[in-house]
Amino acid sequence: MEVETGQLVLTGVMALLLAGVVWWVSHVKRRQSYSVSAGGTATGVQPAERVEKPSGLIRWLTAVDHKDIGLMYGVFALFSFAWGGIAVVLMRTELLTPSADFLGLGFYNALMTTHGITMLFLFGTPMLASFSNYLIPLLIGADDMAFPRVNAIAFWLLPPGALLIWGGLILEPLNVGIQGAQTAWTLYTPLSVQQTNPGVDLMILGLHLTGVSATMGAINFVATIFAERDEKVTWASLDIFSWTVLVQSGQIIFAFPLLGSALVMLLLDRNFETSFFSVEAGGSILWQHLFWFFGHPEVYILVLPPMGLISYILPRFSGRRLFGFKFVVYSTLALGVLSFGVWAHHMFATGIDPRLRASFMAVSIAIAIPSAVKTFNWITTMWNGSLRLKTPMLFCVGFIANFIIGGVTGVFEASIPVDLVLHDTYHVIAHFHYVIMGGIAFAIFAAVYYWFPLFTQKWYQQTLGKWHFWLTMVGTNLTFFPMIFLGYGGMPRRYGSYDLTVGPVSYFTDLHQIATLGVYILAIGQLIFVWNIVTSWLEGPDIEDGDPWNLDDYGMVTNEWKWLERKRETVLLDGGSEEDTLKGEE
Fold it and tell me: DSSP states of 157-174 as a string?
């Protein structure tokens, strides 16, 4: 009874908080950026009279400007990255030895659950939304997003969603009857129904909020790209990053509402004794179909914008335009469509109809073709180019190398006979993390370094940037390559202990220890990254002009850098100095 009362109180407080945020944002007058328009709206309407933004905390609480919201998404995502990263460091430390003598199995399972959900829903999607919010209006010549207030609401749904997702772990030390959820990020039934821990309900509610946030953001991006483009930006000249965000947004609009519906049914089963996922109604198979119909498009929801980032950044340091631009766009559209036809390859071992399995195997193998098209186009773009191995370029090259490993291992798992052997082993973790950490994170790092002068008008420490790349590259491969061999050896994933009476325990131990060493190296690299970004933002040397990467030498200056040059000129003409440039939007 006390636990139920506590749940009601928490739910009431969260509802009041959300209502307050909605009311606050809806009553704030929209403020235009101090800088000149990036090109006007598609209708040619002149921007409203410029109004100075408030300073301090009020500026960020009331922000509707796409650049401010983009920065808030980025800060939130980095905080979530730290939460998920600390969780995995603790988990890998537990796996140094066969017995569960560090965390205990219950806490290990809770950390595993929060790590997966945090990295996918609280780091990956928001971090990509950060770049999309900040850059897309600049790239397409729009004044702002199509619905600025909806944009703000979409962001402000994330912090309460994160608190709900992490609520079980946060409240567990208080001994109020709520613990961290131990369902893994897939929430498979009947486990997720049978666990009476209220922390599972909090996590489901938090997931629902993040899904609503992503859907609102996706609708906004589609409307912005369709309706707010400058007249000079046609579909033929639309940049590749905007293309990938457009396809990603379409996937979100179709996939996330289904996840929300499945989560509502799961909540009803848990709290009101309905039977959506009872054995008679389909049980775990029904949940898996609903979940993975969202879950596999989610992989491409996460990977398409990073592919766009690589396709956008890599040519700038190759001295050549992207090879086969149209084919990269077509392959992006193909990935967006095919991603909805491969979900059951996660279910080859469940005993579904062999004819269905064969069709899903065919599509799962075929979907490798559009990814291969992109990979060959990236390599061809670099071929005989004037390569400049700056930090963003290093991360682009690292992305390609890791993505090839992740893609090849995925083709093996798409084959039914091979998958039946490797299903739910560490081989799956290796494949997935080569794409997520070795691919998506590398593309994000490349984008952070490439646009850091745009965000801050300062330089980062380039030596530290290269240290960050090499530690991350070595750490990634040292962590995940041994997991391929763990999978071949039959080590099941999601286990916090491998203290066996029979079996290759020493083989498992050696590979786990190598992987854990890789995680420690990764952690050191990310600490260097945070130090570099924070100190450079505060104390870094100012850039000299609006073309810090000398793109004009290759005829590759794009809209965002032209906007930066206009902003700097506006500050100087208005009586400011170059040191005042950072304040140009206030």
Answer: THHHHHHHHHHHHHHGGG
Task: Write out the two tokens for 180.
Answer: 């961290």
Which residues are 425's β-sheet partners?
492
Q: How far apart are the first and last CA of the chain?
A: 51
What pLDDT is attached to residue 448? 97
Cis omega (within 30 of 0) for bond into 453? no
Q: Which residues contact 474 (CB under 8 A, 6 or more apart)?
A: 518, 521
Question: How far is C-alpha 454 from the chain's CA centre?
Answer: 21
Q: Which of 428, 444, 397, 343 is nearest to 125 (CA)?
A: 444
Question: What would the DSSP string read from start to end of 141-155?
Answer: T-SS-SSHHHHHHHH
Average confidence score pLDDT of the chain: 88
pLDDT at 58: 87
Strand partners, 458: 542
- Distance (Å, whole) CA 241 – CA 477: 27
pLDDT the model gives residue 40 = 41
- For the chain, helix (H) and strand (E) counts, in that order, are 21, 0
Q: Which of 520, 447, 516 is nearest to 486 (CA)?
A: 516
Pick out the chain residues at pLDDT < 50: 1-4, 6-7, 10, 25-26, 28-48, 578-586
d(CA 83, CA 337): 33
Tell me the residue type at 73.
Answer: Y
Note the pTM of the prediction, 2 decimals: 0.88
Residue 338 CA to residue 22 CA, distance in Å, equals 37
What's the CA angle centered on 450, arms 445 and 453, to 5 degrees? Answer: 120
Taking the CA atoms of residue 564, residue 569, residue 575 and residue 578 in that order, the dihedral angle to the nearest 10 degrees is 60
Q: Tell me the C-alpha distance between 259 and 207, whole Å.
A: 9
* Angle subtended at Cα 209 by Cα 197 and Cα 82, rounded to the nearest 5 degrees: 80
CA distances from 195 to 23, 104, 406, 424 (A): 36, 18, 34, 22
DSSP H/E element including 528: helix 505-539
Q: For residue 21, count other CB atoms closer than 10 A to its CB.
A: 17
Q: What pLDDT, in 10s, does the model give residues 136-182?
A: 999 999 999 999 999 999 999 999 999 999 999 999 999 898 999 99
Contact (CB, 8 A) for 455 and 66: no
Locate the domains of the chain by residue range: 60-233, 386-561
Amino acid at 26: S
- For residue 409, how many C-alpha atoms fall within 13 Å in the half-sphere facing its CB? 26
CA distance 165 to 155: 16
Q: What is the pLDDT at residue 49? A: 52
- The architecture of the domain spanning 386-561 is Up-down Bundle (1.20)
Radius of gyration of the chain from Cα atoms? 24
